[in-house]
Structure formats: C-alpha cells, structure tokens
TrEMBL record:
One of its GO terms (biological process) is proteolysis. PROSITE patterns: TPR. TPR repeats lie at residues 715-748, 853-886. Keywords: Hydrolase, Protease, Repeat, TPR repeat. Residues 53-207 form the DUF3857 domain. This is Tetratricopeptide (TPR) repeat protein/transglutaminase-like putative cysteine protease. One of its GO terms (molecular function) is peptidase activity. It comes from the Bacteria.
C-alpha cells in the first residue's frame, strides 16, 4: 500500500505545545452569546496549509458545539494522529467555551497522552502512526470544544516536490465559519484542482487565481461550505462524481513521478549470488525454459510464500524493503512484493517493471493532477512475447492460465528511470471465471416432485484467497450459512447436506460442494407445463436514467466486476421423452457492457445449460444507452423454458402412481440426510413435512411437524399440524394446536380463521362468527379477506342469507372484484338458491378473472343445479386444466361421472378424497352425493 501524503522537515514522537505560526490567519472568535439550539454544530472549520521547500504544514482549527448527550459521549475524548517519522504534531489551542466563560485547558496543564500501539495491526498494517488523546473533563451539553493544531510532514522520497489535499465541506452542511487557505512561494510551479463539483471537467487552476501577498507568497482562499454538488445517476462512472477536496501538486507531469520512484525499485544486485533467493531463481529456471511458466512460478512464489504486511514506518510508505529482507522475513507490502517479483523476473530474463495504480479510484487517475497521491498500490508490468502482463504479488491463487488477466485498476503509471506516462489497462474477461458452478439435478421422479441435486462451486482469485484464509475458522455451521445463499442463487429453495470445502494448491482454487433436495417450479401455461430456466436473463439489470439534460452525455457502467460460469444439468423423467425447449438458446455476445455466453443441449434424457456472465468490463456510451436498454429488454422478454410433454397425467394421478413404486425413496433418503446433518434445526423437519403434505400423507407430516414443534414451536407450524389433524378427523388435537398457536401469536390470522372453523363444526357458530367479525371491525387492508372468510363460515354453517348479505356489502364496495362475485355464485349454487343470479355472478367473474379455475368450478355447480351436466362437465374439465388438484372440481367430476356412468368416475372421487379426506362431509351439507 502507498500512502498519499506529503511531508516536512523534522519529526517528533511527542506533541509540542506552541502558539500558532505567524503565517496562520486567526478565525473569528466564537460568539458564545449567540449559541442556541439553532446555531451550527460546526462553529469553526478552518484549514490552512503552507507548502514550502518540500514540506507541507497543515493548520486546523475546529470549534464544535456539543448539541446532545450523544455528542457529549462521543466527544469526551479527542484523538489526534500523526507520523513521527515525517513531522510533528503541534497543539496550539484547546479550550471549552460556554456562555460567559472560556476554559483554557492548556493553561490549566492539560496535555495529550500518546498511545504506543499500532492502530491498524489487524489490517496487516504497520504504518508508524501515533495517536495522541486527551479526556475533556467537565464537558457539558451546550459547550463548544475549540481546538487548533498543526501537523507537519516531509517525505525524503519526494525530495523537493510537494503534494497535498485540502478537504472541502459541501452544502447542505452548516458552518459558523468555514475556510480553506493555502500558501506557497511565488515562482513555485504549484498546480491545484478543485474536484468538489465533479472530477470530469475539473480544470487545473493556475497560480494567477491565487493572489500575491506580502513576502512573495501566493495565497488561495476558498469559502466553506462549497455549493452542493449536482446530483448524478448512480450508474455514472466514478470519474464523473464529485470528490470533496482540492488537490495540490508541484509535479509537472506523470513522467516526473515515474522517474522519481525509479531509484527505489532498482533490481541490480537485489538477489546476491549464493543466497537463498538465488536458489529459488535457479529452481524456477530449472523447472522450465518457457517464460510464461517461469513468470507463473515466480508470481506463485511471491503470492503464496510471502504474507502481506504493510510497513510504513521510518519513511517506508514509498520506499520498498530489499528483496532479500522480504524473502528472509517472509512478509512484505505491495512495494516489497513488487520489487521482489520484478527482481525474480529480471533474473529469469523476463522484462518487468513496477507500475503504480489506484486500487479503488483507477477511473479517476487520468483526470487528476500528476501526484503520487493518485496511487495507493503498486504491481508489476511484465512483457512476454510482445504481450503486456499485469501481475499483482499481493493477490493469491494466480497460476499460468491467469497471467493474461487484467486486475481492475484501469490506469497504471510504469516506474522507469527515463520516466513514463499513464498507460491504460484494457479490461478483458479472465481466463478462468472467478466462480464456476456445476449443478446436477435428478428430476427422474417426475415434474410433480422435488429433485435431488449435487453442486460444486470452484472459486479462484480473491474469493479463493478469502476462503483459504478463513478455512480454519469455518466450521460446519458457518460453511452451511455461506453455501446456502450461493446454492439458492442457482437453484432456489433447497435442503442440503454433505457440505465440504477443499483447497487445491496446484490450481490455486477452493472448491465447496453439497448435495440435497431442490424444488421444481412448473407453471401451467397455454395447455402445457413450463419451467423457466433462464436465471441469467432474469438477473440482467440495465435501466440508466438519463432523463435530465445534464445527464444525457454521461455513460453508464455495467456494474461491478464479476465473472460467473454456471452449468446446470437435469436428468429428465421418462428418458426426456416429449420434453422440448422454447425461448433463446443463444445469447448476444455483448449487451449493455456485459459479456454473455450460452450453450444448451437436450439429448438422451439430459438437459444441459451453460451460461457465463461477465460484468464490469466496459461502459456503455451515452449515445448507445437506449439501444442497450432495448437489447436487455429483448433478452429478458424471451427466457429459456423447458416444456413438459402434452400427455402428462394430472399431479394427483402422478402422486397415486408414485406411492405404489420406489421413485420417491431417494427423495425421502435425501431429506433424512439433511435432517441428520443438522438434527437440531427445525427446518429440516418442516421441509420433509411439506413433502408429506404434497403427497397427502398426513401421518408423516404430523410426525415431522411434531419434531419441529419440540425444537422451536411457532404459530405457523402448529396451524399446519392442526390442519393435518383436521383432515384425519382428529378435531380435538386440531383444536389444541390452534389454541397453542394463538397463545404464541394472539393475532395469527391462520389460527384465528381455523379456530372459527372448528367452533362452527362444534355447533358454536355465534362464537365463530364473533371471532371473524372482531377482525372485520379492525378494518384496514385485511378487512376484505375477513369478509370472505365470514361469508364462507356462515354459508357452511347454514346461514346462507347472512352469507349473501356479507358478500353484498363487500361487492358494493368492490363491484369488480372477481373473487367476491365467484364466492357469491358458489354460495348460492351449493345451497341451490337464486340460481339465475348465481349464473350472472359467475359469468361476470369469468370475464374479470385472470385465473378462472375457481370461477369455472363455481359455474359448473350452477350448471349442475340447472341439470346441464354436459355444460357442467365442460367447465370442470377446463377448471382442472388450470388447477388439476382442485378437490371440489375433482369431486363434482366424479359425481357427474357416476350419473353418466363414466368409467373414470371412481378415479376422480378417489383423487378428491385423497386431497381432501372430508370432502364427502362438505358436499353432504349441500345435499350432493356421488
């Protein structure tokens, strides 16, 4: 790491206490008589700098009003930091101001205490900075802390050159007095640039804009706060965004910086003959004559066998330590690692030189003043067979195949004795995706059931290094917590087990893997079941806002740098017979600054989908934004889908058939493994209970829900078990669970509605009605739903007129609500009253509804009451196409089948009873029996 600071003449490890220097202009005194709650918190923000003879002296005064008890707590101790190797900390003033009183703490003997520990050791940094602190005794809310101090800095590496940054305070921050002032000798070629209005378009300001004052000194004074920066779109490149600072530099050009740093990166004699480091050079040379292989081995040596530790002490923030010391100590910062790698490569006859970069603001470098402060990192620029390579010794896991990868620094300044200018670092997709995901999904049980999966994710680069470093601290639970969102991003909800993490030193990768149960997401559309596979298209997001005139010329970024390759392979049911694909089987190679690649195959019972998405490589020019948005919309509009065969049996038939075979056994075994992996996690039991519920196996669901309730009872889990008990006609147990749910969560909607149903069944209709009416009286957005529940409750309890009255009131408030019209149709039809009005309601509901299965079921009941069995059957068949497991439709299909002596009548009735065991009771209340 490089520190972007300049420096000064002498140094000390203890604060000095002196009056402000003569070149400082005092700020106006704080008027304590005017301090009230409306006064600015920052009464004084005054920074003055003097740049002279290679040194920078920074004077700062702040006066802060303690406006609240929270501020009092935060401001009770003042810390000041400085680098004793480069200069002094000089305290000029420390006062507490309150109305009618000025407490001079320095005059009373208050002094700062110097902390001796390194503040950034946990960030692998020894920067040599010292911190001086003082506790402010007697401080009160309403007081003003007025402190003035100077910090002097001089870096011998920079010689006579100077650079600095002056922080700007933009509006709407309120200041009592704000100023930024800079002094330098007339004739010194000091340039300055203000970035507070935006970096792009900020021009270098000439010395003529600073007035000449006594003593042949130039003075630049800026009033604070500066104007509020113009708003910019979030996706604007970083170089367009404002930086709240003024930058100063005496460097004439970038080449001067390049030349000035070159003496510190000489490699001559850096690897003495016979030294251990020379032995490493000989080992690499003997391993291969190929320059790329040698470069890869040298890079791996520096990355893997020298740990990172920044050393900024003793003027070390620009001066690298010697390669022999780095190898002996086995640690070094970016400077040390770069000089070591450059020395190794040159010893192996590979052209190499250091290059300065900015790790976070590379986009801004070419818009800034020439200054070492524009950089905070140094890497290696190598050349092999005419190709430029950018090698970073502080990264990890780089191998021969990664040599052509370009780190995302965008701009570099090569360090050369003859000097060099800025060089662009064109981005390109890495040779290996940073994340390679491979998933195999076993869907052979059928589209109606969960699928088994195995997943393998291979990480390289920075993520691999992070995992490798944290591996010893990642236990089983943390690995699961890390993996679960990674898996969900690829296959959605799942239950997992067999989580593993493996480190492959040879490839520089870390691999995590797991197995488990995943869930299919089929939708019935246009007469066929379809599953959308296109997570790539769905995740594309490009919607720049350039509506404002000032924004129309600003390009858009394509997001953060990311490179992910995902392969999903499905083993399809029935050998894949009848399965087809629709949607885009290819993707555009480039869209909206992103690079895409897709390969799809469907053959021999397997579907394979490979997608690679790389973002952050390029910007989209402003003129191309509309076309890019349109292209992204086109890609998202036609996602890749898997289409199931047209002759699939309904799900209830698939469930019946599966129960008679062994297709479901592997799925149950997988659920058992997931539970065994985390036996104290209730989710494992509730997940398997869900599977039992989808198979209409209530006993199994009750057992698993019971286990989950023992571990961590919730209202939802208790209601689920109550529903299973109710289906098995164990009403007392259902009632106990519902009451327990309400004890845990008194406002549970599900438990309240279910309790009303149980009371109705026990003949306590008035109590049941009161429960629901109490919720209706609460009003709000749930009122309509409770009105629907009340109408259904009353109708099932034999109060048909009351039910219709409730619906009449609700429909008057929402006359085009298809669900309300459908329910009124259903209530009348099932109780065989007002059939013409029921038909009218159902016809209107069909016209208004986007999902007509429930409405068609109701209209079928109307036709049944009218004796139109053919019309009823037609509507029931259409309803079952939309919802094949609609138990009422299945039941009535069986009823009509019995009356028309259809061969499939018993199958429909059996399906209805499997789905809803008490359906005969329900239809018995309507006077309908098979």
């Amino acid at each position: 790491m490089l520190l972007s600071t300049a420096g000064v003449a002498h140094a000390g490890d203890k604060p000095l206490y002196q009056p402000a220097p003569a070149w400082v202009l005092p700020a106006p005194a704080v008027d304590t008589a005017k301090l009230d709650d409306a006064a600015p918190v920052l009464q004084i923000f005054d920074q003055q700098q003097r740049l002279e003879d290679g040194q920078v002296a920074i004077y700062f005064e702040s006066a802060i009003r303690i406006a609240s008890p929270q501020m009092l707590t935060q401001s009770g101790t003042l810390p000041l930091q400085w680098d004793p190797a480069k200069g002094d900390l000089i305290v000029h003033k420390l006062q507490i101001l309150r109305k009618g009183e000025r407490v001079d703490l320095l005059a009373k003997g208050t002094r700062f205490t110097v902390l001796q520990r390194e503040q950034k050791l946990e960030q692998a940094s020894l920067d040599g900075m010292l911190t001086a602190t003082v506790a402010l005794e007697g401080l009160r809310v309403g007081d003003v802390i007025d402190i003035a101090f100077s910090i002097t800095r001089k870096d011998p590496v920079l010689g006579k050159e100077m650079m600095s940054v002056v922080p700007m305070v933009p509006a709407p921050t309120k200041l009592g007095f704000g100023r930024a002032r800079v002094l330098w000798k007339d004739g010194v070629p000091l340039a300055w640039r203000d970035y507070s209005g935006g970096v792009v378009g900020s021009a270098e300001r000439s010395k003529a804009e600073a007035k000449l004052i006594a003593g042949g000194t130039r003075e630049l004074t800026l009033t604070l706060p500066t104007p509020k920066p113009a708003e910019l779109p979030d996706d604007a490149p970083a170089r367009y965004k404002p930086l709240p600072m003024v930058e100063l530099s005496s460097y004439p050009d970038w080449a001067a910086i390049s030349r000035g740093m070159a003496p510190y990166y000489r490699s001559e004699g850096a690897i003495p003959a016979g030294s251990p480091l020379a032995g490493e050079v000989a080992r690499i040379a003997a391993a291969s004559k190929d320059p790329r292989t040698r470069a890869a081995l040298a890079l791996r040596l520096v990355q893997d066998q020298v740990r990172y530790l920044f050393r900024g002490m003793d003027n070390g923030n620009y001066r690298p330590q010697a390669p022999v010391d780095t190898w002996s100590l086995r640690y070094g910062d970016c400077k040390a690692k770069t000089l070591l790698l450059v020395s190794l490569l040159r010893a192996l006859d590979i052209e190499a030189e250091p290059a300065l970069v900015s790790s976070g603001l590379g986009d801004l470098v070419e818009s800034r003043l020439p200054s070492p402060g524009a950089f905070d990192h140094v890497i290696v620029r190598a050349s092999i067979a005419g190709k430029t390579l950018w090698l970073d010794g502080t990264q990890g896991g780089s191998r021969a195949e990664d040599l052509d990868d370009v780190p995302p620094f965008k701009t570099a300044l090569p360090i050369r004795a003859a000097g060099a200018g800025l060089e662009a670092m064109p981005m390109r997709p890495p040779a290996r995706p940073a994340q390679q995901v491979s998933v195999t999904l076993d869907a052979t049980a059928g589209i109606a059931f969960p699928q088994l999966y195995t997943i393998r994710i291979v990480y390289s680069g920075a993520m691999a290094e992070a995992l490798r470093g944290a591996r010893s601290q990642i236990d089983k639970d943390k690995l699961t917590a890390f993996l679960d969102p990674q898996i969900s991003a690829v296959i959605g909800n799942h239950s997992s087990y067999d989580q593993k993490m493996e480190d492959d030193a040879a490839s520089g990768t870390v691999t995590v893997s797991a197995a488990g149960v995943a869930y299919q997401d089929w939708n019935f559309d246009r007469g066929r079941f379809r599953e959308t596979l296109d997570t790539t298209a769905a995740s594309l997001n490009f919607a720049p806002n350039r509506a404002r005139t000032a924004w129309k010329t600003i390009p858009a970024t394509s997001g953060a740098l990311s490179d992910v390759w995902v392969e999903r392979r499905w083993q399809l049911p029935n050998g894949g017979t009848g399965f087809t694909l629709e949607g885009q089987q290819t993707l555009p190679a480039a869209v909206a600054g992103m690079q895409l690649a897709r390969k799809v195959t469907l053959a021999d019972g397997w579907l394979s989908l490979q997608d690679r998405t790389t973002t952050g490589l390029a910007e989209v020019p402003a003129a191309q934004i509309p076309a890019a948005r349109a292209e992204v919309a086109r890609v998202k509009a036609n996602p890749l889908r898997l289409v199931a065969p047209a002759d699939l049996p309904p799900r209830w038939a698939a469930v019946t058939a599966a129960k008679q075979g062994i297709r479901l056994k592997p799925i149950f075994e997988a659920y058992a493994k997931a539970i065994a992996a985390t036996p104290d996690d209730p989710d494992g039991y509730t997940n398997r209970a869900w599977f039992y519920e989808t198979l209409y196996e209530r006993e199994g669901a009750i057992a698993d829900l019971g286990k989950a309730i023992e571990l961590a009872p919730t209202a939802d889990t208790l209601v689920r078990r109550a529903q299973a008990y109710y289906a098995l006609r164990q009403d007392d147990k259902a009632l106990a669970d519902v009451q327990a749910a309400l004890e845990l969560e008194p406002d549970s909607d599900g438990a309240t509605g279910f309790l009303a149903t149980l009371k109705r069944d026990r003949g306590q209709l008035d109590e049941a009605r009161a429960l629901i009416e109490a919720r209706i009286d609460q009003g709000g957005e749930k009122k309509l739903g409770w009105q629907v529940q009340l109408a259904d409750l009353l109708a099932e309890g034999g109060k048909v007129d009351d039910a219709v009255a409730v619906l009449d009131e609700a429909i008057a408030a929402a006359p085009r609500n298809a669900a309300l019209l459908n329910l009124r149709c259903w209530v009348r039809a099932t109780h065989n009253v007002a059939i013409p009005q029921a038909l009218q309601d159902c016809t209107s509901a069909v016209e208004l509804s986007s999902s007509a299965a429930a409405v068609l079921d109701s209209r079928a009941m109307v036709y049944f009451r009218m004796g139109k069995l053919d019309a009823a059957q037609t509507d029931l068949d259409a309803a079952l196409q939309g919802n094949p497991e609609q138990s009422a439709s299945l039941y009535m299909r069986g009823v009509i089948g019995k009356r028309t002596k259809a061969k499939d009548a018993d199958a429909y009735l059996a399906a209805a009873r499997m789905i809803e065991p008490r359906i005969d009771e329900q239809f018995g209340r309507y006077g309908i029996k098979p």
